[in-house]
C-alpha cells in the first residue's frame, strides 16, 4: 500500500507530468528513468508532457481492487500523449462507458486517485476525461 | 502602478442534480423551492473532485490566459474554501506543487465561509500592489456541504475560480480600481470542528447577514470611488441561491441586465467560496474594454469584500484561450440521481 | 552440462482448501512427488511462490517448508517471478542439477490464496503490475489482460465467442481431471452471459483464486534411468526464459506477448525442436485471451489465428495441438506460485501415458508455458520421452 513518503517522491511526475527525454536518442520516458530504455543512455533533460492524448486501449473494471471499492465501474485506459509517451490512467466523467473507443481523444485533468482511508493522506494525480 | 487580473479561469464539475430529485427524497414541493429560491439544478463533484483538484484545473486555465507567465514566478498562492480536504495540511501546497509555483512562494489556505475566495484575491492583489511579489494567485473553490434534508442541500454545489494578479501593463485584463471590506461578528452560519455539515440561523442569514453586509460593502466602495450603479456594465454579488443576488442587486439600484451575466446560481447552485468569483469569471468571459465591473462577496460570520475592476483592451484577446464559464455550465452535463448523489457526497454510511 | 530428467510428480486436489494451511498443502504435494520418484532424500529444494508475504504473512518460506518436510539442513530457496514463479523454481533447480552442483532436487510451487478476502487477493495479484504507475490508478489483472484483449480484437478481429471457446474447452478438460478445482460443464453462452469482470472479459474468462501446491523431483538422466523401472524417462529438453516491460504503457505492440515469443524461441533452440514437433502443451490461460495470445506466441498458430483455432477445436484433446489437457488455469485452478510446477506435472503424466481419461494419444514431446504478470516474464520448458 502507498505511504505518504512513497507518494510524495513521485509528485513531479504525478502532479506535473514531468518526464525525462534522453539527450542521446531523444526517447521520452514517463515516469523518468535512470537508464534510457531506447539506447541505455544516462543523460536526460526534464520535459513536461502535454495533457492531451488518445486512448490506445481501455477496459471497464467491474471488480475494483482494494482502495477503489464503491467506485465500480472503473474505466481504465492506456493513453498516448502528444509527445508519444503512454500512461495508464482512469477515464473519468464518461456518462456511458459503452461509448469509449480506441482512438478517442482525451485530456488529462488533476484528480483525486485514492486515499489512505478517511484519516490518512490523499493521493492526487491525473485522470483522462473526454476531450 | 496599475495592478489587476492578468489571468483567470473557472472549473465546474460535469455532474448535476436537478432540484426535483432532491425534493422528491424529502417529500418537499419542488415547484415552491424553484420559485422561492430560483434554483433549478446544481453541480455535484465526483468522488475524485475536491477543492484541491478543482483549484488546480481553474488555475491552469488562468495561466492559459496569462500571456505565458511562468508558474515559478508567482510569489504567492491563496486558496479560499470551507471544504479544504484536510483539516490540517494545506490545500495550497498541493495546488502549488501541481502548478509549479512552489517552492519559492508564500502559500496559505483561507477560510471565511463563502468569502474565502475573494479574501485570496484581496491578499494577492495587495501583495502585488505593495511590490512584494511580481505575481500572486487567489483561488476560491468549494465542494459545499449541506446536511441531508436541510434547505442547504438544494443549493450546495461545487466549482472553482482562479485569478492571477500582476502589474505588467501589457498583461492586465481587468485593472483593480478599488477594494473595500466590511466585516462584523454575525453568527448566521457556522460549522464546528469534527462536524460534517454546517448549521445556520435560517432567516437570520438574510437581512442582518447577507443583505446588510453586501449592501454596506457595495455602497462603501461606490462612495469611495464615486461610482454609481449606472456606471457599471456588470455587477456580481454572492449567490447562495437564485433569489438573493438579484434582490440585493435591485435594492442597490442595479438592473437585471447588469446582473444576469454573473448570475450562475439558478443552474450552478452555491459554490460557497467559488460563488461570486465564478460569477466574475463568467463576466470576464464576455466583458468589453473600458467596462467597469463590481464584485461583492459575502461570507457568513460575516463580511463582504468588494472590488471594482476596469476592463482593458487585452481582455478580448484571451477570453477564448480557456474554457468559458457559461459553456461549462450549459454543456456536457451528466445528471445523477439522489442515490448517486448521496454516494458521491459520502452521505451513505458504509460498513466498517 | 548434464542431461536432466523428471523422476517424480506430486499433485494434490486444488480448490478452496479451508482446512489446509500453506505449509500443509506444500508438504503433501512434496511428499507425493518424493513417493512418485521413489526417493527420500534430496540435495536441493526450490520453492516457487509469488506472495506468501501478502497472502499469509509468511516470508522465509523455503527454510520453513524444508523443516516441515523433516529436511532442515537441505539448501532451500524461494524464487519469485509473479505467476511464473513455479517454472522459475524448475529452471533454477534444473540449472543446478545440469551443472553438477547437486544431484536430486525437489522442485515445488505453492500459493495459499484464500486466507485473505477477494479485495486483498485482487490487490496482491496486482502487485505483479507496476505499483506506482499501473496499480496506483486502480487497474486489476483482469483489467490488464482485458486491455490486451481489446487490442487483439481490434487488430485481428478476435471475438468474445472465440475467447469463450477457450473457457469451454478448458472446463471440458477439467471435468476429466480429479485434481481440478472446478468440475463444470461450461458452454460458450455460459461464458458470454457470465458477470462482466473487466470488459471484454467475463467471470468465466478468468482463472479463479485457488489454494494449491505441486512438486517435481528431478535428477541427472542416468539416475533417472535407474529409478524409472518400466516407466518412460522424461527429459528436460529445453528451458527458455524471457522478460518484458511489466508496464503495458512501455510496450509497443499490445497484441503480442514478446516475452512468450522470446522464451519459446530459446526453449525451441535448446531442445532442437520447432512448434510442429510439440504433441501437447500446457499454457498460461490466466484469462482466455492469454491462451489465444500464447498459442500464437508459441508458434502453434500465426498472429491472429489463435482465436479461430480455439473456436474450431484445434486445441481440444483430440485437436491438432491439444492445449491445457489438465483443464488449464481456468478449470484446474491458479494458485499462482504452484501453476508452473503443476503444468510440468501434467505434461510428465501425458508423456508417461498416465493422464487417464484426458490422455493425449502418442504424446512424446510436450511443452509448458508459464507467464508472470501481464507478460512481464515467461518461461517455456520442453519435455520429451527418451
Provide a quick synopsis of the model.
The complex is a heterotrimer of chains A (131), B (352) and C (386). With 131 residues, chain A is mainly β.
Structure description:
The complex is a heterotrimer of chains A (131), B (352) and C (386). With 131 residues, chain A is mainly beta. Chain A has 2 helices and 8 strands, in the order ααββββββββ. In chain A, the strands form 2 sheets. Chain A has a 5-stranded antiparallel β-sheet with strand order 6-5-4-7-8. A 3-stranded antiparallel β-sheet of chain A has the order 2-1-3. In chain A, strand 7 and strand 8 (122-130) form a beta hairpin. Chain B has 352 residues and is an alpha/beta fold. Chain B folds into 2 domains: 4-172 and 328-344, 3-Layer(aba) Sandwich (Peroxisomal Thiolase, Chain A, domain 1), CATH 3.40.47; 177-315, Peroxisomal Thiolase, Chain A, domain 1 (3-Layer(aba) Sandwich), CATH 3.40.47. Chain B contains 13 helices and 14 strands. Chain B has helices at residues 19-26, 30-37, 51-64, 91-99, 116-129, 206-225, 243-252, 256-259, 265-268, 275-284, 315-318, 325-330, 338-344; strands spanning 4-11, 15-18, 41-44, 74-80, 106-110, 135-143, 158-166, 174-186, 189-190, 199-200, 234-237, 292-296, 301-311, 334-335. In chain B, the strands form 3 sheets. In chain B, strands 5-4-6-7-1-8-13-12-11 form a 9-stranded mixed β-sheet, with helices on both faces. In chain B, strands 3-2-14 form a 3-stranded mixed β-sheet. In chain B, helix 1 packs across helix 2, helix 3 (51-64) runs parallel beside helix 4 and helix 6 crosses helix 7. Chain B is globular. The mean pLDDT of chain B is 97. By secondary structure, chain C is of the alpha/beta class. Chain C folds into 2 domains: 4-117 and 210-228, Peroxisomal Thiolase, Chain A, domain 1 (3-Layer(aba) Sandwich); 118-209 and 237-385, 3-Layer(aba) Sandwich (Peroxisomal Thiolase, Chain A, domain 1). In chain C, 39% of the residues lie in helices and 18% in strands. A 9-stranded mixed β-sheet of chain C has the order 3-2-4-7-1-8-11-10-9, with helices on both faces. A two-stranded antiparallel ribbon of chain C has the order 5-6. In chain C, strand 10 (365-372) and strand 11 (377-385) form a beta hairpin. In chain C, helix 7 (160-174) packs across helix 11 (288-297). Chain C is globular and about 55 Å long. The relative contact order of chain C is 0.19. Chains A and C meet through strand 4, strand 5, strand 6 and strand 8 of A and helix 5, helix 6 and strand 5 of C.
Amino acid at each position: 500500500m502507498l505511504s505518504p513518503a512513497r507518494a510524495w517522491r513521485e509528485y513531479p511526475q504525478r502532479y506535473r507530468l514531468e518526464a525525462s527525454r534522453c539527450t542521446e536518442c531523444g526517447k521520452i520516458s514517463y515516469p523518468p528513468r535512470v537508464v534510457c530504455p531506447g539506447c541505455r543512455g544516462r543523460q536526460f533533460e526534464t520535459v513536461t508532457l502535454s495533457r492531451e492524448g488518445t486512448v490506445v486501449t481501455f477496459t471497464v473494471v467491474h471488480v475494483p481492487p482494494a482502495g477503489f471499492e464503491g467506485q465500480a465501474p472503473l474505466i481504465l485506459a492506456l493513453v498516448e500523449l502528444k509527445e508519444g509517451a503512454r500512461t495508464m490512467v482512469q477515464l473519468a466523467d464518461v456518462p456511458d462507458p459503452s461509448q469509449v473507443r480506441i482512438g478517442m481523444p482525451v485530456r488529462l485533468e488533476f484528480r483525486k486517485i485514492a486515499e489512505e482511508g478517511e484519516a490518512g493522506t490523499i493521493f492526487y494525480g491525473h485522470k483522462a476525461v473526454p476531450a | 502602478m496599475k495592478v489587476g487580473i492578468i489571468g483567470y479561469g473557472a472549473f465546474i464539475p460535469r455532474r448535476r442534480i436537478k432540484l426535483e430529485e432532491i425534493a422528491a427524497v424529502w417529500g418537499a414541493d419542488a415547484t415552491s423551492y424553484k420559485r422561492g429560491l430560483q434554483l433549478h439544478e446544481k453541480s455535484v463533484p465526483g468522488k475524485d473532485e475536491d477543492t484541491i483538484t478543482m483549484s488546480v484545473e481553474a488555475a491552469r486555465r488562468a495561466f492559459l490566459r496569462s500571456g505565458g507567465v511562468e508558474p515559478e514566478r508567482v510569489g504567492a498562492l491563496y486558496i479560499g474554501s470551507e471544504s479544504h480536504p484536510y483539516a490540517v495540511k494545506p490545500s495550497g501546497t498541493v495546488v502549488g506543487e501541481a502548478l509549479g509555483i512552489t517552492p519559492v512562494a508564500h502559500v496559505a489556505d483561507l477560510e471565511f465561509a463563502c468569502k474565502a475566495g475573494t479574501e485570496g484575491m484581496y491578499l494577492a492583489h495587495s501583495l502585488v500592489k505593495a511590490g512584494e511579489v511580481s505575481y500572486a494567485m487567489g483561488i476560491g473553490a468549494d465542494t459545499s456541504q449541506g446536511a441531508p434534508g436541510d434547505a442547504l442541500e438544494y443549493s450546495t454545489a461545487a466549482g472553482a475560480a482562479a485569478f492571477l494578479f500582476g502589474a505588467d501593463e501589457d498583461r492586465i485584463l481587468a485593472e483593480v480600481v478599488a477594494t473595500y471590506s466590511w466585516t462584523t461578528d454575525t453568527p448566521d452560519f457556522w460549522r464546528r470542528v469534527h462536524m460534517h455539515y454546517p448549521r445556520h440561523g435560517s432567516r437570520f442569514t438574510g437581512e442582518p447577514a447577507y443583505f446588510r453586509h453586501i449592501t454596506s460593502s457595495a455602497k462603501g466602495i461606490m462612495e469611495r470611488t464615486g461610482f454609481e450603479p449606472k456606471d457599471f456594465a456588470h455587477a456580481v454579488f454572492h449567490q447562495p441561491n437564485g433569489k438573493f443576488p438579484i434582490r440585493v442587486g435591485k435594492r442597490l439600484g442595479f438592473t437585471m441586465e447588469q446582473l444576469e451575466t454573473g448570475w450562475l446560481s439558478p443552474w450552478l447552485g452555491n459554490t460557497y467560496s467559488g460563488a461570486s468569483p465564478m460569477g466574475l469569471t463568467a463576466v470576464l468571459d464576455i466583458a468589453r474594454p473600458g467596462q467597469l465591473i463590481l464584485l461583492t462577496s459575502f461570507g457568513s460570520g460575516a463580511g463582504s469584500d468588494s472590488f471594482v475592476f476596469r476592463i482593458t483592451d487585452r481582455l478580448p484577446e484571451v477570453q477564448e484561450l480557456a474554457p468559458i464559464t457559461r459553456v461549462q455550465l450549459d454543456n456536457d452535463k451528466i445528471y445523477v440521481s439522489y442515490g448517486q448523489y448521496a454516494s458521491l457526497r459520502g452521505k451513505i454510511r458504509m460498513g466498517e | 552440462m548434464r542431461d536432466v530428467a523428471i523422476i517424480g510428480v506430486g499433485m494434490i486436489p486444488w480448490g478452496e482448501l479451508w482446512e489446509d494451511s500453506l505449509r500443509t498443502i506444500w508438504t503433501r504435494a512434496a511428499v507425493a512427488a518424493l513417493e512418485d520418484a521413489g526417493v527420500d532424500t534430496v540435495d536441493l529444494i526450490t520453492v516457487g511462490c509469488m506472495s506468501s508475504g501478502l497472502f499469509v504473512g509468511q516470508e522465509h518460506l523455503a527454510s520453513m517448508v524444508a523443516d516441515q518436510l523433516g529436511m532442515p539442513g537441505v539448501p532451500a530457496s524461494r524464487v519469485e517471478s509473479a505467476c511464473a514463479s513455479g517454472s522459475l523454481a524448475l529452471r533454477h533447480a534444473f540449472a543446478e542439477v545440469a551443472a553438477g552442483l547437486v544431484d536430486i532436487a525437489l522442485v515445488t510451487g505453492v500459493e495459499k490464496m484464500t486466507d485473505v478476502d477477494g479485495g486483498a487477493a485482487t490487490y496482491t495479484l496486482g502487485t505483479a503490475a507496476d505499483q506506482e504507475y499501473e496499480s496506483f490508478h486502480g487497474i486489476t489483472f483482469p483489467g490488464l489482460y482485458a486491455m490486451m484483449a481489446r487490442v487483439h480484437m481490434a487488430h485481428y478481429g478476435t471475438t468474445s465467442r472465440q475467447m469463450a471457446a477457450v473457457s469451454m474447452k478448458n472446463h471440458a478438460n477439467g471435468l476429466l481431471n480429479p485434481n481440478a478445482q472446478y468440475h463444470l460443464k461450461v458452454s460458450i453462452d455460459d461464458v458470454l452471459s457470465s458477470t462482466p469482470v473487466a470488459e471484454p472479459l467475463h467471470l468465466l474468462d478468468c482463472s479463479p483464486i485457488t489454494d494449491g501446491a505441486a512438486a517435481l523431483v528431478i535428477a541427472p538422466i542416468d539416475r533417472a534411468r535407474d529409478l524409472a523401472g518400466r516407466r518412460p524417462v522424461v527429459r528436460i529438453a529445453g528451458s527458455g526464459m524471457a522478460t518484458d516491460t511489466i508496464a503495458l504503457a512501455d510496450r509497443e505492440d499490445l497484441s503480442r506477448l514478446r516475452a512468450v515469443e522470446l522464451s519459446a524461441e530459446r526453449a525451441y533452440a535448446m531442445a532442437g525442436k520447432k512448434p510442429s514437433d510439440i504433441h501437447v502443451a500446457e499454457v498460461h490461460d490466466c484469462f482466455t485471451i492469454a491462451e489465444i495470445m500464447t498459442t500464437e506466441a508459441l508458434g502453434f498458430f500465426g498472429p491472429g489465428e489463435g482465436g479461430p483455432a480455439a473456436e474450431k477445436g484445434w486445441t481440444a484433446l483430440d485437436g491438432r495441438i491439444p492445449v491445457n489437457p489438465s483443464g488449464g488455469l481456468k478449470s484446474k485452478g491458479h494458485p499462482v506460485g504452484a501453476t508452473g510446477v503443476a503444468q510440468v506435472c501434467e505434461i510428465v503424466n501425458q508423456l508417461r501415458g498416465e493422464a487417464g481419461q484426458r490422455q493425449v494419444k502418442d504424446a512424446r514431446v510436450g511443452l509448458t508455458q508459464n507467464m508472470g504478470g501481464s507478460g512481464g516474464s515467461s518461461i517455456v520448458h520442453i519435455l520429451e520421452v527418451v
